[in-house]
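W.,

You were right to be curious about this one. When I first looked at the sequence I had no strong expectations either way, so I just let the prediction run and decided to look at it fresh. Below is the sequence, 113 residues in total, followed by the output.
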Amino acid sequence: MTKTRQELIAATLALLQADGGAGQSPEPEDVEVIEKMIDSKLAELDRRDIAAFPDKNKFADEFLDPLSTILANAAAPQFGQPRNYDSQAAAENILRALKPSSYTGSVLAVDYF
């Protein structure tokens, strides 16, 4: 099952405790802050070879938590909170672990001299 960009925003705002509370909608300004940083953070993760996201509007379930943690950490100062580099590193490691392996299992031909 996949999660949408809006679900990623909601999960990020929940981590920042800016989700509006029970039964309330988050503030549009808060949603806009997170919305603006999603594409750049996804591009950064791809550039750093941590994870690639060809579709920036849909994400596999297992990517939601680490992505929301990374986004929340990036947005924390704008919400009056300190950044947590340990949680950022842990989230990046989870994304690395979820990345498909390039191991093919084939035997490498050896040239003898």
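Here's what jumped out at me. The helical segments are 5-15, 28-47, 61-75, 85-98. And, maybe more interesting for your project: Residues 2-98 form one domain.

Coffee later to discuss?

I.
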